[in-house]
Amino acid sequence: MEQAITSTNLPHPLFIRGKVRDSYDLGDHLLIVSTDRLSAFDVVMANGIAGRGKVLNQLSAFWFDYTRDLIPNHMISINLADFPADLQAPPYRQQVEGRAMLVRKAQRISLECIVRGYLSGSGWLEYQRSGTVCGLPLPAGLVESARLDAPIFTPSTKAEVGHDENISFAQTASLVGEDLAERVRDTTLTIYTAAADYALTHGIIIADTKFEFGLLGDQLILIDEALTPDSSRFWDAASYRPGGPQPSLDKQYVRDWLIASGWNKQPPAPMLPAEVVRVTGEKYREAYHRLTGL
Q: Among the four residues 41, 66, 72, 109, which has the most C-beta atoms within 10 Å?
C-alpha cells in the first residue's frame, strides 16, 4: 500500500515550504514537490492522502500543456530524467518521482486570481447577505450553485500567514497597477473559459478556480498549480442540480467532514478518519482520470 509523503528532505537548498508544496532552489530553476499534505481552511491536516501530490502535479502539468497557447507558464519538465542526477536514485527518487516539477523562476504577483462561473462557497454566502459576490452585484433570485451569465473575476490577497482577503478590482489595480490588473483579469477569464469548456466535454463542471501569475521580465506567465482539485471546485455534470450543494470531485468532501465534526478551524487540525482519507483519494484520482484519460 502506498504511503503518504507528507514531507521531503532533498540535498538542495529549501526555497519555501508551503502548506502543500516544498520548493527547492536549483539556481536558475526551482524544483516544486507536491507532497501528500492536505490543507483546509488554511490549516494543514494531521494526516496526508497517499498519492494526492502526484495527482496535483500531473494534473497541473496537463493543464499547463493544454493552455500554453493562451499563456506561457513556468513548467520545464515533470520527468525524473530531467531532474538533478542526485535526485534520480534512492532515497530521494521516492520523494520526487511523479510528484515534482522543474520550473522557471519568476517574480510572483501576490494575488490569488479567482474566477467563478457558478454561485457557490463564500460567494453564495455573500450573495445571500447582500446580492453581491466580492462586491460585484448579481441578478436577484439566484439559487445556490446557479450558473452565472458570465464568469466573474474575484481576486484576493495572497497572505503569507493567515487567511487571504477578497478585494475589489480597484484594490487590485492599486496593488499591482491598472495595466497588470487588467492583464491578469483578462487572462484569468480566458484560461477559465477554455478549461471549463474542455472539462464539460468530459462530464465535469469547473465551478470556480484560482490561478497565480508571475513575471519573467515583462512577460506574464502562469505559475504554481493549475485547475486541480485543490484550487478548483469540480462537479459531476450528470448530477448537477442547481438549488443546493453539488457532489464534488475535490477537497470539499474534507471541508464538509471538518464542519460536521465541530472543529473550530484553528490549529491543530483533527486526524482524518481512514474512510475520509480513502474517499478523498478516490475523488482526486477520478477527477484526474476523467479530465486526462490517463
A: 109
Could you tell me the domains of the chain? 14-105 (3.30.200.20), 108-262+284-292 (3.30.470.20)
Burial class (CB within 10 angstroms; exposed 0-12, middle 13-18, buried 19+) of 118? buried
- DSSP codes joined into one string, 152-173: EE--EE--SSS---B--HHHHH
Q: Which three cell numbers stand for residue 37?
A: 499534505
What's the alpha-carbon Rg for the chain, to the nearest Å?
Answer: 19
Q: Which pLDDT tens digit goes with each residue over 265-284?
A: 999 999 999 999 999 999 99
The whole-number pLDDT of residue 159 equals 65
Euclidean distance between CA atoms 57 and 44, whole angstroms: 18
Grid coordinates representing 264 are: 473550530
pLDDT tens profile 20-35: 999 999 999 999 999 9
Average pLDDT (54-71) is 98
| Neighbour-count burial of 12, counting CB atoms closer than 10 A to its CB (0-12 exposed, 13-18 middle, 19+ buried) | middle
Residue closest to 82 by CA, chosen among 63, 92, 97, 72: 97
DSSP at 46: S
Q: Residues in the chain, how many?
A: 294
Count Cβ atoms within 10 A of the Cβ of residue 161 and give its class: 0-12 exposed, 13-18 middle, 19 or more buried.
Answer: exposed
Q: Across the strands, what pairs with 29?
A: 104
pTM of the model: 0.95
Contacts of 266 (CB under 8 A, 6+ apart): 43
**Rounded-to-integer distance, Cα 283 and Cα 278, Å:** 9
